[in-house]
Every structure is written in C-alpha cells, then in structure tokens.
# Entry
Amino acid sequence: DEDLVVLGIETSCDDTAAAVVRSNGQILSQVVSSQADLLAQFGGVAPKMAEEAHSRVIDQVVQEALDKAEITEKELSAVAVTIGPGLSLCLRVGVRKARKLAGTYVLPIVGVHHMEAHALVARLVERELQFPFMALLISGGHNLLILARDLGHYIQLGTTIDDAIGEAYDKTAKWLGLDMRKSGGPAVEELAREGDANSIVFKVPMKQHKDCNFSYAGLKTQVRLAIEANNIDAEIPISSASSEDRRARADIAASFQRVAVLHLEEKCERAIEWALKIEPSVKFLVVSGGVASNQFVRARLNHIVEKKCLQLVCPPPSLCTDNGVMIAWTGIEHFRMGRYDTPPPACEPEDVV
Ligand code: KG4
Ligand code: ZN
# Structure
C-alpha cells in the first residue's frame, strides 16, 4: 500500500480547520480556528460574517497545519476539501483555497462529504472497524442513522424530521442563560450534572412512530415552556443567578438531556435491529459529530450497544466536532480507491480564482 500524505480543509460551518494525515493513520498536524467569539456576540451563525471570518484565517490555518506537520506543499499526495453539506458561502472559501494549492503545486483534489467524514474518521481511530458498520451522526445540523455497507455505499435508516439534537442543546443553553462562548452543548452537559433529571417530565419524541427518525422541535418547545413556568430570565447569566434559580436551571438541563438522549437510545435500538436484518455481520456502531463528545450520550449509547452485542466506536472529542483530520482521512480513503480529480495544469497563484 502506497504511503500517502493528505491535507484536509474544512470550512462548512463556523470553524476553519486544516490537518495533515498519513495513510497509516498518523495525524501529523491538526489546526482549528473557531468563530466562538462571533457566535457568542451574535447568538448564531450569520453566513456572510462566517464567510469573512473564514477568509481572514484560511491561509494562516493551512500554513500552520503544513508547518506543524513539517511538510511542504510539494510533498503532499493530494488535497481533500469539504464540498458539502454546509453554508455555500463558507464552503467556497475552503474549495477556493484547495483549488489554488492544487493549481500551484499540481496536486489531485478529493471533494469530501462532511457527514461521510464524521463517520469514516472512526476508521482512523479504530483500525478493526471494517464495512459494514452502523453510524449515528449527531451534530448541530444533522441527526442521521446510517448503515455503511462499503465506501461510498450508505443506506439512510433515519434522519430528523425537523431539528437536530445539537440545535436543541444550543437553544436550551441560550434560554438558560449559559455561557455561549463555547458552543451550547458542553455548557448544558456541565450544568446537567448538578440537576435532578427526573424533576421535570418531558415527553419523549416520536414514541408512537415505528421508524428510526428523530424530532427535536417539540422537545425544544417543552423546554421553553418549562423555562417560562420557572420564571427563568436568560438575560441574567447563570453566574449571577441565585442558588434557587441555579437549581431550577440545572433541573431543566438535566431533564432535557435525559429525554433528548432517551430519544437517541430508542431509535438506535430499533435501527440496530433493522441493520442486522440487512447486514448480519455488523459489529460496530460509530457515534460521531459534535454531540458525540458528550459523556452522558456516550455512556447511554454504550449501554444500548452492549445490550445488542455490538461495540461502540466513539472518536475523541477533538475528532467528533468539526475538524480537518476527518476530511484528510476521508480524502485518503477515496484517493486509495482512485476517486479524485486529476490535478489542474500548473499555474501561478494569481491565475487562480
Ligand atoms: O459536528 P459539529 O462540530 O458541527 C456541525 O457539523 O454541526 O457539532 C456541533 C454541535 C453543536 O450543536 C454543539 O452544541 C454540539 O455539537 N456539542 C455538544 C457537545 N459538544 C458539542 N452537545 C452536547 N454535549 C456536548 N458536550
Ligand atoms: Zn459537523
């Protein structure tokens, strides 16, 4: 097997990320520049602003990834870049950079699907992980259950009919007045440790549906109503709340988290049954995407997976949230199978738009 070195570039949402990875699985460098400050200031991602933030740092992030890997552009086997799904204005910044590098240094380009990368990075982490396997991909924008039969051959078992679980975490954090400088998920997870998860009875979504789909919009509404009923004022940050007020917020966080994750557990259990009918040799469930860095989520899903005699593979948090490593690795997987765009003819950087 040829030794490949691939640069991965990711700009689909609010993080500008780049990494250099070898085909033997060695991560040579990993750089992420986050727009967390912008997010906290404006309470969400504004595409135009995010695009400008990516444009400001992209050259520097890629250069840092190459420097840390102690590698020059000429030594790369290929450049991998996220081509979707995501904000098109933001995706374009990464693609433009990849094209420029490919044009200047005559490198092949591999276009990468962001969600496929969240799933496949598990194969870098767990070398025993062969196709077919199952994946639950949980992030701010996606809630997917898939059966990965082979590289590029995926069956969707379930998706969200409205919001993703990460969106529900983020809104809950905002309404509870939590510190939004980090993303909302980790803040809710932390506060939930102080609360009583059985204090508020939220309804588990989609109980009556015999499918593997998700819905988090209704749970979001239930949380908002509980916050109103408890007279919680999001304008008062949690750090200035009275101990009684803090307790009420923690109870909501814990109760929300319990039901949000119970919904994942129920649908995963059913999806495993479905998947085993299609591919009886499935042995692993991959859980990836930003929300998979949550310890409570991991523990509960591990329980389900063990009950079904499968094994859980959950990448470390730095590889669960958006990162360049997963893009580089997915680039390597496709490149090895001959799936890439041949290098454009050599040209000067100024010629490339
Ligand atoms: O995969 P990701 O980094 O970006 C997307 O592709 O969306 O996921 C970001 C999402 C956010 O909604 C964030 O709040 C959530 O992942 N998240 C968490 C945790 N860490 C990140 N949710 C719950 N608990 C966490 N510890
Ligand atoms: Zn993502």
The domain at 133-281 is CATH 3.30.420.40 (Nucleotidyltransferase; domain 5). The first strand starts at residue 5 and ends at 10. The chain has eleven helices and ten strands. The beta strands are 5-10, 15-22, 27-34, 78-84, 109-113, 133-138, 143-150, 153-158, 284-288, 311-313.
